[in-house]
Specification:
CATH superfamily: (Glycosyl)asparaginase
CATH topology: Glutamine Phosphoribosylpyrophosphate, subunit 1, domain 1
Strand order of the largest sheet: 4-3-2-6-5-1-11-12
Bound molecules: aspartic acid
Number of helices: 9
CATH architecture: 4-Layer Sandwich
Order of helices and strands: HEHHEEHEHHEEEEHHHEEEEE
Distance between the termini: 26 Å
Structural class: alpha+beta
Oligomer: single chain
Number of domains: 1
Radius of gyration: 18 Å
Number of strands: 13
Shape: globular
CATH class: Alpha Beta
Length: about 350
């Protein structure tokens, strides 16, 4: 997978780079793109997800439909990090979390959902068909089945199976995720969760988009932290933490250690900072600094990243550790960006 990933970077991005006549990994400066439609999403899986979203955005569709369709691409892919083949909890069971929010402030969410392939679509049904915002566990599954979602067998991907078997050897509960710079002696802990093939686990895709009509929506879906305690929910299904959309201001999604995103109501905080006049990049940085202040000496041990879009179509991102990347697609470009970070 590591070499596959390298291949994807060099062939796909290289190809795009040639196509667009631009360097594809564009360093840490913010994209200059403004306007709509536009879609951004977390990590390298975001490229394929954005392409899925673009089928709707590119033909004047609604941002809500786009962000659902986009992350379904990731949920469909056999990988270790999102969807039914993903890293399980420490009892070996894959539990999925997702949320979605539209331009009217409608939102829906599912937590600890088992054996359903598309938690994002169940979250949308919660939003549209129930008087509630969030359903969890058995109740969420029962609702999904009643809505016609098939009950699937859990099928760990080979990577997830190997990673879980490796984890079981020590069965150490260390909630560490998405820290990429430790290989090069960065500020992360000594033991980030590497898959057996050396790749790091990215458990989440968060996506926000603005459609041709200028409306914003967002989605977030995850298997959560790998080998988490049974019953643990992170930020990803929590409106205001893993995702927030305010159609007057902007939208934000988060990835990384969910506990620390929840602590500061991360995505909501970023949107409120944008409301006060900050650019998306400044707002993400200010939210990260708030986490750093709370964590003190322990800030170097975690990764959290925010990715935001404002009403003008401006994009910004900021992470605690370096190594966080996001995918952007607009009428002008389709590429990966590296986020700025607190630790270099
Ligand atoms: N935020 C997710 C969680 O804490 C994990 C991730 O983003 O990788 O469950």
């Amino acid at each position: 997978m590591a070499s596959r990933r390298k291949f994807i970077y060099s062939s796909l991005f290289g190809g795009l780079g040639t196509l667009l006549g631009k360097k594809v990994i564009a360093g840490v400066s913010y994209p200059t793109v403004t306007g709509n439609p536009i879609v951004i999403s977390t990590w390298d899986a975001g490229l394929a997800a954005n392409a899925g979203a673009w089928k709707i955005l590119g033909s004047n569709g609604r941002a809500l439909d786009a962000v659902e369709a986009g992350v379904r691409v990731t949920e469909d892919s056999i990988n270790c990090c999102v969807g039914l083949g993903a890293n399980p909890d420490r009892d070996g069971i894959v539990t999925l979390d997702a949320c979605i929010m539209d331009e009217h402030g409608n939102c829906g969410s599912v937590g600890a959902l088992e054996r359903i392939k598309h938690p994002i679509s169940v979250a949308r049904r919660v939003m549209e068909k129930t008087p509630h915002v969030m359903l969890v566990g058995q109740g969420a599954q029962q609702f999904a089945v009643s809505e016609g979602f098939p009950l699937e067998e859990q099928k760990l991907s080979d990577d997830a199976k190997k990673a879980y078997e490796q984890w079981l050897k020590k069965s150490e509960y260390k909630p560490i995720i998405n820290i990429e710079n430790t290989k090069s002696g960065g500020h992360g802990p000594s033991a980030p969760v590497h898959l057996p093939n050396g790749e790091l686990n990215h458990d989440t895709i968060g996506m926000v988009a603005m459609d041709a009509a200028g409306n914003l929506s967002g989605s977030c879906t995850t298997s959560g932290m790998g080998f988490k305690m049974r019953g643990r929910l992170g930020d990803s299904p929590i409106i205001g933490a893993g995702l927030y959309v305010d159609n007057e201001v902007g939208a934000c999604t988060a990835t990384g250690q969910g506990e620390d995103v929840i602590r500061i109501c991360g995505s909501h905080t970023v949107v409120e900072l944008m409301r006060q006049g900050m650019s998306p990049g400044q707002a993400c940085k200010t939210a990260v600094e708030r986490i750093i202040k709370i964590k003190g000496d322990k800030a170097g041990e975690i990764q959290v990243a925010f990715l935001a879009l404002n009403k003008k179509g401006e994009v910004g991102s900021f992470a605690i550790q370096k190594g966080f990347s996001y995918a952007l697609k607009s009428n002008k470009e389709e590429k990966m960006y590296n986020a700025k970070s607190y630790y270099q």
